[in-house]
């Protein structure tokens, strides 16, 4: 089954300056929290979806991922996944997509 949020890829910037994608399940969870609006509290607890990510919380206002055990704050961002758009639509969508930093 294809998730509705599969067209969005969420990534975080690692310590080597490389963008690393979250799993589809984590990306879906982030999108679900965003769609819930203010009642969700403005943060995403990644451990709710993947126990290996239990130290991580995403602050949606600052667009940073906080690691509770080390205090690290890497940047996160999202962009449309090109595999779900025909090429002309993807580039049009990408040009309108707000992202952080450089293109992942």
UniProtKB/TrEMBL annotation:
GO terms for biological process: protein ubiquitination. Signal peptide: none annotated. This is WWE domain-containing protein. Residues 1-78 form the WWE domain. InterPro entries: WWE-dom_subgr, WWE_dom, WWE_dom_sf. GO terms for molecular function: zinc ion binding. Gene3D superfamilies: 3.30.720.50. Pathway: Protein modification; protein ubiquitination.
């Amino acid at each position: 089954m294809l998730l509705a949020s599969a067209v969005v890829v969420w990534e975080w910037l690692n310590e080597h300056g490389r963008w690393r994608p979250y799993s589809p399940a984590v990306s879906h969870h982030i999108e679900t929290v965003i769609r819930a609006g203010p009642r969700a509290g403005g943060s995403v607890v990644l451990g709710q979806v993947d126990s290996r990510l239990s130290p991580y919380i995403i602050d949606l206002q600052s667009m940073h991922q906080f690691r509770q055990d080390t205090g690290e704050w890497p940047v996160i961002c999202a962009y449309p996944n090109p595999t779900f758009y025909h090429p002309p639509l993807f580039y049009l969508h990408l040009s309108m997509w707000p992202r952080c930093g450089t293109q992942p």
